[in-house]
Design goal:
Elements (H helix, E strand, L loop, with lengths): L8 H48 L9 E6 L5 E8 L7 E14 L2 E14 L6
Antiparallel strand pairs: 1-2, 2-3, 3-4
Length: 127
């Protein structure tokens, strides 16, 4: 009699279990990658909002001690804080400009922060 060829039920079940484990691990890696990709996209977008608002300082936002809050069209909240940096000299005043952009991601608050120093002319007779 010739030996029978083929797979036993146990061999097929073991192969299916191995395939299922490999699929579950691959799905977990893919899911984690997509989550990191979404986070990176939000950080990049928040930095663009911060750079855009920072470019307004000295243009349509005067360089003067103040705090301004706002929200972008896509839901990123921003805050610009302008404070004195150093004593005025030679008709110029230095101001520390900090912009913070915040958003919620996965139920957690996230934020990016940019900081720079801007110079402004002192008004005539100002010190």
């Amino acid at each position: 009699m010739a030996p029978e060829s083929g797979f036993t039920l146990v061999e097929v079940l073991v192969a299916l279990a191995i395939v299922a484990i490999a699929f579950a691990v691959s799905l977990g890696i893919l899911s984690g990658g997509l989550t990191r990709l979404d986070h990176d996209h939000n950080v990049q977008h928040a930095l663009l909002v911060a750079q855009s608002e920072l470019a307004r300082v000295g243009q349509d936002i005067p360089v003067a001690d103040r705090q301004i809050d706002g929200k972008s069209a896509d839901g990123f909240a921003w805050c610009i804080a302008i404070t004195p940096y150093a004593a005025a000299a030679s008709g110029l005043a230095a101001h520390d400009v900090v912009i913070t952009v915040g958003w919620h991601e996965g139920g957690q608050p996230r934020e990016v922060r940019l900081e720079t120093v801007r110079l402004a002319l002192l008004p005539p007779g100002g010190s």
